[in-house]
Specification:
The complex is a heterodimer of chains A (489) and B (399). Chain A has 489 residues and is mainly alpha-helical. Helices cover 52% and strands 4% of the residues of chain A. The longest helix of chain A has 28 residues. In chain B, β3 and β4 form a beta hairpin. The chains are: A mainly alpha (489), B alpha/beta (399).
Amino acid sequence: MVITNQLKNQHLLWRAGFGPLPEDRDQLRQHSQKSLYQSLVKASSRSPEYLDVADGMFKGLMMGIGDAGRMQKKELSSDEKKTFRKQSQQDIKSLNLAWLNEMINSSAQLREKMALFWHGHFASRNLNIFYQQLLLDIIRRHALENFTDLLTEVSKSAAMINFLNNNQNRKDHPNENFAREVMELFTLGRGNYTEHDVKEAARAFTGWGADLRGEFVFRKNQHDEGVKTVLGKTGKLDGDDVLRILIEDPQTALFITRKIYRYFVNESVDEVRVSWLANRFFQNGYDISQLLKDIFTAEWFYEAEHIGSRIKSPVELLVGIRRTLPMQIENPEVQLLVQRLLGQLLFYPPNVAGWPGGTNWIDSSSLMFRLRIPQMVYAADEFQLRPKDDDDQLMGMKDPFENGVKLKNFGKMSGGHVIAAKIAWEDYIKVFEKVSGESISAEIAAVLLQQGTHTSNSTMNKYIDSSNRDSLIKSTTIQLMSTPEYQLC
Amino acid sequence: MILKRRQFLQTGSLAAASLMLPRFLKAFEKPISFGSGNKVLVVLQLSGGNDGLNTVIPVRNDIYYQSRPGLGIAKEKSLSLTDEVGLHPALTAMKSAYDDGFLGILNGVGYPNPDRSHFRSMDIWQTGSGASEYTSTGWLGRYLDAQCPGCDQPTQALEIDDTLSLALKGTKMKGISLTDPGRLFNTSHEKYFKDILADHSMNGKEQLVDYLYKTMAETLSSAEYIFLQSKLHPAAGSYPKTTLGKRFQTIASLIFSDINTKVYYVSLGSFDTHVNQPVQQERLFTEMNDAIAAFVSDLKSNHRFEDVLLMSFSEFGRRVSQNASGGTDHGTANSMFLLSGGLKQKGLLNEMPDLNDLSDGDLKQQVDFKQVYATILKKWLKADDLTIMGRSSNYLEFI
């Protein structure tokens, strides 16, 4: 297919953000990629606001508890614990929706997209809302800054310390979990360290802990003061020393760059290009925004093989639909159900390795559900699907998605679910007001699909309501979104 | 030769399905390269961490009763297997199967360095990996990959649920999930999907979009195939009207058809009994027991019980001591049921867990679950367990 300027700019917006806004269509036909990228960077330059959704009363309770030990030492009554868990679970849902909202509406598209990448890279499951909020804040603040600072702050976050058991890492009782994952998943990658390195690094991280407020604490009496050797460097190393040793190893730059390339450019890796990028990343002192600039302003980034070569993750799909079609959702929590059914619920990664992505998103049921979403949004079609229980999340409680929700204005349902959305079609339709009737399908396809379509006009015409211009635009849009091509960006 | 009506229907449906398939999908009609025989595996996942010690109960062990003053199940209440061992009172079907020589019980199944998080431990069980490995494919998905290179028919492994578990996702092949063949058929039987599929043609090397169209084509054609198969020979036995009962009925109806499915996967939960364990476990066990009772009796009357192996597992067992809320917290090793008319070894397949020899209040692992998988893959499904599991195992003798 022909690679137009509009297509190139949309490519940039899908990768360095969550897709174009239809009203920018005219501008996207004009702008150069370099100037568009500059404006993306500018829109993301401000440090983000802290997303704080934790319940107020609950916060008082938590701050009153103070010392970290109390939770473990069972000084909280079981009722207090239960209240804590329930409220925390509820608040994590609010945090999910609040962040989703940023992805949809914020102009800091580059920052939020990069934060989503780091959210999968520094994957952590934690049922404590404060820990989750703090970790998300670290990730969003440092998303475009320096990888060294990001790694250090994440390593010292209560979410990670608890998730990877570093609170239990003591000099006479080392716990290797954090030391192993920081090397395998956060910096070097498998095969670039030995079991001995893990053991020695674990000793260096002894004494790193966090209190209930989520603040980092160094417990000197639990720290192993002895001499350790990690990746050939010997000394009385502590945790900061180990992180420095990991950063000084160019393998870390290569590992991170390759992962970024696979996420933002193409699953199939051009090793020559990646090592060139990684070298620069290393030379530039792990400056993330410089690495992104090297990628997004390169000519090769806009080559045909990269355009439309990525399967949208469930969150990208959902956010993308909402950016394209402005809508009010009466039951916003249904978006969590969609995330769960499609296999990417924010804050609940499958394990510390994050979401595997790519074709792993697609199986028969997830694909059919993806194809039916636009129709569900458009016509409030009922769907009767239940996600799997998540016992870590439920903690023995009843699944809130078990019964169909009751909604005004959406009729009676037979126990299923509905996406109760009202689409503001007027704004969307206006985008195409200057487009002539015969080219309207092609113009809509150009906005929606990065891969073009194989569907013939005669097939499309069977499913399109061309009784008037508005219906034509609406039905064409929904039909084109209900295709395999729309799953790609 | 008399062409049986159901064979005719099957041929007819595949022929009809192939009409709508683009040319590049004709691989569909290749002969299926799955192992000989008609052995079927049914995996029952008990989600949430079932309490193994109150499932297979050491009824003469003082430590058991001392550790569980409120939760221990008295010998008289349990269903006696031996002088030392009883089953949870709700598991009457398991007791009959035991008496008839159709049940094998493995004790202390787990893995080294057990993880007490639900999702992580389930991840380990579903991928069949070690505690410090991260794998994005499941053990049954890799079974599909290994058995069926180049074969596009994914109905060899079915999960009876709305979403597909990691256990059934391979690198190239994935199982199909459905709760009800009729509903799967209806939701995928949209003319629009068939029309855009017919318009799609692949030119040159396979692109990502072709992968999506291929998955869609497989889904549409499998949905039709499964639906028609499920109607050929409806399970006639009387099944309980519970979710699990209906799911076992679906499985039975497919086993009795001519479908090529080798693996069925079904889950029940939540067994996460931190609080008021007795009520919750009994409710779930009753649902499980009644569904299995109907399933076994149906298999027997259709003379298929010797071809079907039902395996139950949970991501971990629970701690030996009860907690302060009338429940138990996350533990480690656990018991597994193996139920079939074709077992070589039956009854208690190994020693009961040694409650004198605990690790930090938890049971020590006696058998690695990966040995169980390898045994089933090698001896039941006649598959290459070395490739699938990525390691060699000592096979067990129950098959």
